[in-house]
Amino acid sequence: MNNYIYQIKKQKEQMTTTLPFISKNKNYVEMKAVTWQKDSHGLFDYETKSLSVKKHRVEGSCKVCREDNEIVIQEGKNKDEAHMALTSIQAQGDQYFIQPNQSSTENDNYLIVRSLKNADGVQKGYTLQEGDLLKLGRVEYHVIEIRDAKGQIRSVKDVFQSEAKLAPPLEGGVAKQCKICLLEEETPEDPFITPCKCNGSCAYVHFNCLKHWLDSRGYKKESGNTISYRWKKLECEVCQELLPQQIRFKGKVLDLASLERPNQPYIILENTQISEKDKKAQRGIYLIKGTAEDQVKLGRGHQCEIRISDISVSRLHAFIKYEKGNFVIVDNNSKFGTLVRLSTPYLICMDKIAIQVGRTVLTFVMKSFSSLNGNTHAGLAALHNGEQGRIMFQTGFQAGSNKTSSINNNQKKHDKHTGQ
Ligand SMILES: [Zn+2]
Ligand SMILES: [Zn+2]
Fold first, then answer.
1. Residue 127 CB contacts under 8 Å (≥ 6 apart), including other chains
2. Which ligand is in closest contact with the Cα of 213?
3. In angstroms, what is the span from residue 221 Cα to ligand 1's centroid?
4. So where are the chain's domains?
């Protein structure tokens, strides 16, 4: 009899150790961390086998840190300054969010496009939004403008606009003179601007003169439904200052780059790269028209409409397609991946998603504790009401013992799964 009571007591103790985490949160997050053992420009090689892999189970808010090739979880408020957090996980009620690291660009969090899959396991792609920052290998593209099917244009000009100073009057009655056409008149339509660091009589240039000069430095190429504009050497020839793309004048934004916008849905991508040869900035603007038939190819190869000459970019790296009124990017199993920078918290769902932080890939999936239980229905009922659940456990020894053993069995099953 004593032995029997002892058994009940022991079982109840076991229950109290498992119960609190059930009533606290009915879901948890399974996180798989894969780190490339090589450190190369913050890239992750999706084809390598030289990896460190570890699985973690997350049951509350925490920070995810990397020490050499090891990923460690820091729970609660125990902040260790020696660890630089790759990302954070925030628990809110029954939901978990990826809280992207904003403090260092080295640890920017990027959504991995190929991890977004539909129920059949097929890549569904990522729907592009204005303001998105894409990364193909180590080459970045900004989505600066989208015209949707209704004809509405959404753009993120303020992000990329470097506002040139309007020319102040010269002292001592000296007339301003345009450094390109050498004329002294200016009009409200064609004002003098000072777009760079040159000063004195060299400071001034007509807006239109600068625009024509830039046009002569750029070239336009049309291929399929993509129009590419590229400018080489965007710096002022005298002071080497990078020239702006847009000028704000009397509340109006004037484009220095001449773009022909079609009367149909389109998306505009921009990229600024520093050429490895001469260290000069090159700007590319790519306008893709939304037509359902064609998809635009991005990559290093000749067949691509958007060609990227960088060794970290695969020959056929990604596609952009126009689907149900949206522009969607799909990764083509590229070596270094197609990524979208996360700037706001991202909800972790029952469908797997993955982010890349430098040379580490973190895969997240939310799981329910109730699915650990053999009797899902009873488990859910208990979980929906913590109080009720506890009463149920306490009143019937039989029910309690079943519950405990089934949780333990499932945890064992789960642990086994984790080890694989
Ligand atoms: Zn001029
Ligand atoms: Zn200058």
1. 326, 327, 328
2. 1
3. 27
4. 2-24+369-419, 28-118+346-366, 126-341
> How much of the chain exceeds pLDDT 90, in percent?
45
Tell me how many degrees the CA angle 313-120-407 measures, rounded to the nearest 5: 110
- Higher per-residue confidence, 305 vs 260: 305
Sign (positive or negative) of CA dihedral 46, 97, 380, 30 = positive
Tokens at 258, concatenated: 């001449």
Contact 193, 163 (CB under 8 A): no
- What is the full DSSP assignment across 15-68? HHHHHHHHHH-SEEEEEEEEEESS-STT---TT---EEEEEEEE-S-EEEEEET
**Ligand that comes closest to the CA of residue 241:** 2
Contact 314, 336 (CB under 8 A): yes
The ligand placed nearest to the CA atom of residue 195 is: 2
Distance in Å, CA 22 to ligand 2 centroid: 66
Q: How far is the C-alpha of 30 from the C-alpha of 352, rounded, in Å?
A: 9
User: Between the CA of residue 43 and those of 101, 107, 327, 400, what are the distances in Å?
Assistant: 17, 11, 26, 50
Tens of pLDDT, residue by residue over 305-334, are: 999 889 999 999 999 999 999 999 999 999
Tell me which residue of 164, 27, 160 sits closest to 92, measured CA to CA: 27
Question: What is the sign of the dihedral through the CA atoms of 74, 77, 78 and 80?
Answer: positive
pTM, to two decimals: 0.74
Question: Which residues have their alpha-adjacent CB atom under 5 A from ion ligand 2?
Answer: 196, 198, 236, 238-239
CATH no., domain 28-118+346-366: 2.60.200
User: Distance, CA 201 to ligand 2 centroid (Å)?
Assistant: 11
Instruction: Report percent pLDDT > 70 for the chain.
Output: 75
* Span from the CA of 235 to the centroid of ligand 2 (angstroms): 8
β-pair type (295-299, 281-289): unpaired
- Of the listed ligands, the closest to the CA of 193 is 1
Length of the chain: 420
- Give the ligand with the smallest distance to the CA of 181: 1
Q: Ligand 1 centre and the CA of 241: distance in Å?
A: 19
**Ligand 2 centroid from CA 333, angstroms:** 44
Quickly name the fold that domain 126-341 has.
Answer: Herpes Virus-1 (3.30.40)
CA of 108 to the centre of ligand 2 (A): 34
